Amino acid sequence: MTTGKELDNLRQSIDAIDDQLLALLNQRAELAIQVGKYKSGNPSEFYVPSREKQIYTRLLRENPGPVPDEAVRAIFREVISACLNLEQPLTIAYLGPEATFTHIASMEHFGQSARYQPSPSIRDVFSEVERGRVHYGVAPIENSTEGVVNYTLDCLVDSDLSICAEIELGITHHLMSLSGKIESIRRVYSHPHAIAQCRQWLDLNLPEVELVDITSTARAAEIVSHDETSAAICSELAGKLYSLVPVVRKIEDKTNNFTRFIVVGNTRTKKSGNDKTSVVFSLSHAVGSLYHALEVISRFDINMTKIESRPSKMKAWEYLFHIDIEGHCDDENVSQALDLLGQRSLFLKVLGSYPKSIPSRKGE
Ligand SMILES: C=C(O[C@@H]1C=C(C(=O)O)C=C[C@H]1O)C(=O)O
User: Fold this and answer.
1) Which residue puts its alpha carbon closest to atom 15 of ligand 1?
2) Which residue from 158, 211, 250, 339 lies 20 to 30 Å from 217 (Cα-Cα)?
3) Which Pfam family, an example, fits this chain (predicted)?
């Protein structure tokens, strides 16, 4: 048993360490301000995802514990966010409204010191950045259960913005309502992707209930906050914002449910040493054209992590192929592969090279 005196001593030691931490944090902030002075003054140069990725990778590799990796990451997210804010306060548009998973992902990536602005649609997220009203935009691109978010792929093709970073968030859905009672539920509101991710649970537990598609999980929570007979499938954050309580927690069919989000901006991200590149291309309707295109990827010993096709929208039955490959477009093999792929394609556009995400479970 620790005596009162020993307890006092332990707390005094903690106070002394906190003083050191505070002094070190301020020293770090001073250095970040100095680094900021070396940047050209263009606001879009202040946030450097490649450098941030290197910092996290090193700290997580060196972490001796007992502080868990997830906590180290959360603490340094806020340290970096505060330092970056002293160089240049960042403004971020995200697919809103407030408390969507995109909002959670944005805060997880940019921390509490950035300023956030909800946008009503993915197109608006892009146009806010294009018009220079915000520095960066965040939009969902792919869910591990439901597949790609087509609209984001289409916006990337049309826009001059680049993918600067990706964010990967563990997603958990809760059934939430005003009363928390399952027997009073007549309707369930949510985003179609969220409903699809909970389909088996809904079929089994609420087979008679009407399912209503809504533009976002957060908007579903808002609607339900005015209706005693309905429930929303949403995040805990969205439910709390609208005073809902959980009816049943964690109702998604697959426990390993992740969503990837992209950060779009006017800058190209430098190499971090552990990167991915997203590319879109189109091909002629000739025998073996896709085969010959993809042969290039394997010839340069590159791992492809995703392939997706989308209608070109220019002509019926013509397609755009979206691929993600490992490596940065400044890597020798990736750059040569993209040159050759370009020669074999009708059209090719590099959507961005960016550090591979470190998955987070903050959306759970
Ligand atoms: C300090 C810098 O600027 C920003 C802040 C960082 C930090 O606080 O460590 C890291 C990268 C940048 O987003 C830098 O570029 O090194």
Assistant:
1) 48
2) 158
3) CM_2
ipTM: 0.98
2 has pLDDT over 70: no
Instruction: Evaluate whether 85 touches 149 at the Cβ level (below 8 Å).
Output: no
pLDDT of residue 73: 96
Mutate to test the pocket of ligand 1, among 87, 92, 110, 136 (most ligand atoms within 8 A of CB): 87
Q: Which parts of the chain fold into alpha helices (H)?
A: 4-38, 49-62, 69-87, 101-110, 122-130, 150-158, 192-197, 199-205, 217-224, 236-241, 289-299, 332-343
Which pLDDT score is estimated for 16?
A: 98
Structural domain boundaries, residue 285: 269-355
Joined together, the tokens standing for residue 230 give 């309905």
Query: Per-residue pLDDT for 49 more than 80?
Result: yes
Residue 271 DSSP class: P
Q: Is the pLDDT of residue 312 over 90?
A: no
The ligand 1 atom nearest the CA atom of 47 = 13
Is residue 308 assigned to a domain? yes
Assess whether the C-beta atom of 240 lies below 6 angstroms from ligand 1: no
Cα-based torsion angle of the residue sequence 60, 66, 72, 75 in order, rounded to the nearest 10 degrees:
-160
Taking the centre of ligand 1 as the mean of its atom positions, its distance from the CA of residue 43, in whole angstroms, is: 13
For residues 235 and 283, state if they share a domain.
no
- Domain boundary (225, 256, 287) is at 256
- The pLDDT score that the predictor gives to residue 218 is 94
What is the C-alpha separation between 352 and 269, in angstroms, rounded?
A: 8
One-letter identity of residue 64: P
